Amino acid sequence: MTDPLDDGAQLRCPNDGILMRDIAGGWECPECGHTITPTMPIRIPQKFDGPSLRGW
């Protein structure tokens, strides 16, 4: 059985299972130095430029 929240979980190193740390452009294992970079570029949403819920 898979947990539906696993999709949003922080990555673990495939070599030693250590929780990977965010670095510029990907993730790195603090123990062995293994890095993972995404194969697809990550698009950061543009800043919202509209009225707020209160209309300000």
Structure description:
- The protein is mainly β.
- The protein contains no helices and three strands.
- It has strands at 21-23, 26-28, 35-36.
- Strands 1-2-3 form a three-stranded antiparallel sheet, with no helix packed on it.
- Strand 1 (21-23) and strand 2 (26-28) form a beta hairpin.
- The chain is elongated and about 50 Å long.
- 4% of the residues are buried.
Would you spell out the secondary-structure blueprint of this structure?
Layout: E1 21-23, E2 26-28, E3 35-36
Antiparallel strand pairs: 1-2, 2-3
Strand order of the largest sheet: 1-2-3
Query: Per the principal axes of the C-alpha atoms, what is the gross shape?
Result: elongated
**What percent of residues adopt helix (DSSP H or I)?**
under 10%
Mean pLDDT: 81
Largest sheet: 3 strands, antiparallel
Number of helical regions: 0
CA-CA gap between termini: 46 Å
